[in-house]
Structures are given as structure tokens and as C-alpha cells.
Design goal:
By secondary structure, the chain is of the alpha+beta class. The protein folds into two domains: 181 residues, HIT family, subunit A, CATH 3.30.428.10; 167 residues, HIT family, subunit A (2-Layer Sandwich), CATH 3.30.428.10. The protein is built from six helices and 16 strands. Strands 1-2-5-7-9-8-13-14-12-11-10 form an eleven-stranded antiparallel sheet, sandwiched between helices. A three-stranded antiparallel sheet has the order 4-3-6, with no helix packed on it. The protein has a two-stranded antiparallel sheet with strand order 15-16. Helix 1 crosses helix 4. The protein is globular, with a radius of gyration of 21 Å. It binds zinc ion. The site of zinc ion has 6 residues, from loops. Its EC number is 2.7.7.12. Pathway: Carbohydrate metabolism; galactose metabolism.
């Protein structure tokens, strides 16, 4: 692979008709862009939803009733992520683009920004502060991230890093979470290949759980070892759950995987988030992530639904040093035509029962990744 450590997409900022930010990330060499104006007559942005504090669990719940009106699986000629045409005034006013990021028109969080209180009295709520962004990976309506050419995937990685840095600096933000839901089976409302970024004004329940475990290990080793660093070392020396190994990143199926298909992609050094990666690391990340996704899609004859969850360190300076950036890729698919549903034990108690063994899934994934490696892009 050619070193692309100085990879720099052309970044162009614009604004949609209702004031939302829109940012183009064009592949390097695309030249400067003069963004087209958004000619739509959009209503003013909706008032934010509310955040309610659940005294029973200590969790925040975002109530976003206005999201019921959002677009659901539109055909290609009405897709809000396709470039604008004479018959479809989409969210992207231009006739073409490479990668684009914009504020969600129907956000669960935002557009207000504010520091949240640590808890609320029963029956009180606050405006749902934060920010939700959409990342469109390509102007093509069909396909998926795993089918992107390398350069485009690398541009998306750059967009994730850019957005992580900016969102982390916004007032009141405690966690920045880039993710992708792929497949209508797991609730995707738009087929167009895209992901999202949530900037939360609180540490999510899962984020808090992972941060607490990371903190315990960090303290037990006098601040010399992150938990994920120790886990990766042990997985690499054991080998039975490894899926792929690179210079800067490796993927393995976690020992106590919760989902029928689950893989974690972890950097070889302690780094907090996308924004902290070096150019060389981002170069390799785009490559190994594409290989991992291609491997997942080689498991079955039809595309496998997945959630790609990019876990970034909490922004709380007390928790940050113990947490290492990583991807948790999970799929509920347990057979060609069977999905795992979260039922009583999992949904009600958070107690997972997995029908697959991590070592078996790792062997299948390893073979699948090897079978697709070297395919020219
Ligand atoms: Zn589309």
C-alpha cells in the first residue's frame, strides 16, 4: 500500500436553507468546490426534544416525538442523501459529491447545546442538548461501506476525525459516537450508504460501563496499562480469536462476545479517538476496516446486517487516559435466514446469551477475510 500519510481531502463548508451545517469532504485532487445554494423553502428547525432522567436506573432518555415525521425508506428518486436533481431537492444541494456530513433534520439531540445537570428531580426534563450528524459515504444510492474504493473509505476516515475534533469541542458534549447501522433488518430508514455521529451531552450507559472497567484496570496497573491494550496483547499471543493483524490495527472476536457475529478492531497503541490517529494509522484503518467488512459479507450469500460502533474515549479528562479507541462491529445474524432478537434476558436484563463460540466465529471470519484479501479495489 502506498503511504498516504499526507492524505488531505478538500473540505468545504456550507449551510442548508434552515441554517443547518453541511460540510463536503471531497477526495484529494478534486479541486476547490463552490457549494450550490440550498434552494428549498424549508420550515424553521423543530424545537429540540427533551431529556428525561430515569431515577430508577440513573440513565438519561431522549424523547424525540418530532422524529415520527422523518423519511422512511424512500425510493432513489426521492432520497434525501442523493445529490439534488431537478425532480429531487435533497439534503445535498450539489449535483455531485464524494463524502458529505450535515446536521440531521430530525435529530434526537440538539440543536441546542448546554451543560446538563448531573441528575434531575422526578418529573422535570431539560431540552435535549447535543448534536446529531449524518455522514453520507458516497453519492451512489446503492452499495455499502464495504464496497467503497479505498480512497473514498480513507476520506470517510478523515471526515470522522474532523467531526470528532469539532464535536468534542462543543459546549456540554461528553461523548462523541460515530456509528453505522447497515440493513433494514436492524432499523435502517434510508438505504443510501451512510452513517451517523451522535454528540451526547452525557456519558451513555454503555460508555460509562466500558469506562469504569477501563478505569479499574488502569488503576490496578498504576496507570501503565489500558484494559484494551492488555486484552489486545493477550489475544494476539493466544491467536485463537484473531481475525486479522496489521501494523497499527488488529481485529479479533472478543472472548465473551455477546452477538452471533462480533469483532473488535483495535489500534496497537493507546489513542483516544479518530482525531488522535496519525496519518499512517488512518491509512491502514481504511484498509483493514474494508477487509473486515468484506469478510463479514463473505460469510453468507446475502449482505449481513451490522452495527459498526466506533467507541471513542469519554471527553471527561478523568476517564480519558484509561480508554482506548476501538470499533465494536456486531450483527444479530445467526444463520442464513435467522436473526437474534433481543428478548427477555437481553432486552430486560442486559444479560446476553450467545449461541455461538467466539473461537468458531473467529475461524470463519479469519477464513472469510483471507478469501477476500488481495481483491483489487
Ligand atoms: Zn440515495
Amino acid at each position: 500500500m502506498t503511504a498516504l500519510a499526507d492524505f488531505s481531502p478538500t473540505i468545504t463548508r456550507s449551510t442548508l436553507a434552515d441554517g443547518r451545517d453541511l460540510i463536503y469532504f471531497d477526495d484529494p485532487g478534486a479541486g476547490p468546490r463552490v457549494p450550490a445554494p440550498d434552494g428549498r423553502d424549508l420550515p424553521p428547525r423543530a424545537e429540540p426534544g427533551e431529556l428525561r432522567f430515569d431515577a430508577l436506573s440513573g440513565d438519561w432518555v431522549a424523547v424525540a416525538a418530532h422524529r415520527q415525521a422523518r423519511t422512511h425508506l424512500p425510493p432513489a428518486d426521492a432520497c434525501p442523501l442523493c445529490p439534488t436533481t431537478p425532480s429531487n431537492s435533497s439534503e445535498i444541494p450539489d449535483a455531485d459529491y464524494d463524502v458529505v456530513v450535515f446536521e440531521n433534520r430530525f435529530p434526537s439531540l440538539g440543536p441546542v447545546l448546554a451543560d446538563l445537570p448531573s441528575s434531575l428531580a422526578w418529573g422535570e426534563s431539560v431540552p435535549a442538548a447535543g448534536r446529531c450528524e449524518v455522514v453520507s459515504f458516497t453519492s451512489e444510492h446503492t452499495g455499502s461501506f464495504g464496497e467503497l474504493p479505498y480512497t473514498r473509505a480513507r476520506t470517510v476516515v478523515e471526515a470522522w476525525a474532523h467531526r470528532t475534533a469539532e464535536l468534542s469541542a462543543l459546549e456540554g458534549i461528553r461523548q462523541v459516537f460515530p456509528f453505522e447501522n447497515r440493513g433494514a433488518q436492524i432499523g435502517v430508514t434510508l438505504h443510501h450508504p451512510h452513517g451517523q455521529i451522535y454528540a451526547y451531552p452525557y456519558l451513555t450507559p454503555r460508555g460509562a460501563q466500558l469506562a469504569a472497567a477501563a478505569q479499574r484496570h488502569f488503576e490496578a496497573t498504576d496507570g501503565t496499562q489500558t484494559l484494551l491494550g492488555s486484552l489486545l496483547d493477550s489475544e494476539r499471543s493466544d491467536g485463537s480469536r484473531m481475525v486479522l493483524e496489521g501494523q497499527h490495527f488488529s481485529a479479533f472476536v472478543p472472548f465473551a462476545a455477546r452477538w452471533p457475529i462480533e469483532a473488535h478492531l483495535v489500534p496497537h497503541r493507546d489513542v483516544a479517538d479518530f482525531a488522535g490517529l496519525t496519518g499512517e494509522e488512518k491509512d491502514e484503518l481504511a484498509d483493514v476496516y474494508l477487509r473486515l467488512l468484506a469478510g463479514v459479507d463473505a460469510l453468507y450469500d446475502t449482505p449481513t446486517p451490522y452495527i459498526a460502533a466506533w467507541n471513542q474515549a469519554p471527553l471527561d479528562p478523568a476517564l480519558r487516559p484509561a480508554s482506548r479507541f476501538h470499533l465494536q462491529l456486531t450483527s444479530p445474524r445467526r444463520a442464513e435466514d435467522k436473526l437474534k432478537f433481543l428478548a427477555g434476558s437481553e432486552a430486560a436484563m442486559g444479560a446476553f446469551i450467545n449461541d455461538t463460540r467466539a473461537e468458531d466465529v473467529a475461524a470463519r471470519l479469519r477464513e472469510a477475510v483471507a478469501s477476500v484479501s488481495g481483491v483489487a479495489r
